[in-house]
Amino acid sequence: MSAPTNVEVESSGDRLRTLAAEHMDSKSKAPLGVYVFAQDDPGAELARWVEAEVFLDTFGNTREQLQAEYSPYDGRTVFLCVIDHLRKMPAASMRVIIPTLDGRLSKTLDDMERYWGISPAAATIRDGVPFPFFNTWDIATLAVSPSHQGRATAGIVSMALYEAYVRGSSECGYDYVVAVLDKRAYRFANWIFRETWAPFDGADAVPYLGSPASLPVWSQLSDWGARLKDGEGNLHELIFESRGFENVVELAPPGELSRLAGRVLDSPLSGAPVIDLRDHTSVEATQP
Length: 288
Prior knowledge:
By secondary structure, the protein is an alpha+beta fold. The chain has a single domain, classed as 3-Layer(aba) Sandwich (Aminopeptidase).
């Protein structure tokens, strides 16, 4: 595949700026804003663009590879996207997958079987406690554009994404989150967010989709929030109380993520067979 020409890159930038301008709040005075998109919303391309840019640069994943990995989960996907209001460009994205109540169609839980040999049915946390499939969402990807990866900027956009995610999952009554994190990202996230993630029992770092060493991890949001409230009040205010972003980030409207999540949870799955890795059989998708 040949490298894109300067004209193609410029044309792509123009399209993104037009798309960002169409979806951002033109009345906001904050330099950044958080937006929520259904996977088939035209605005989701802003989030996918950041994801593709970062994952190609960091792990060598092409857009085609990302499509192959994540398209089976499109029907369960919602995107969060930070838009730079001043540049009219996407700055960061989060791909959220909402599994079925029995834990199917979670990219993280499915890949635990493929890459770590851990059956989701046998996955445990905290010294053998079974993982609660029915009470979890999946952060499949999180990406911050290179233009916003300075220490201060990367921190604020990541916190804004987590604020939207925590608020939305809390509104829907979900308390757990799973993800697969590159080991460097795992250490960075636990440093900046104060030990939010823990590996599943028995999971060691292995090569994963271009990452030389990744881990399947989980977090209990209520537990994380309590620890932040006890020791990191400022972080708790930002992420769990939605306070402190004033004049910097226009937060997603209240209820926006939970509204789209509710649509996913209420919708039937596609009729195509899916592989249920809990018992290794092909089953017909059914109403969650």
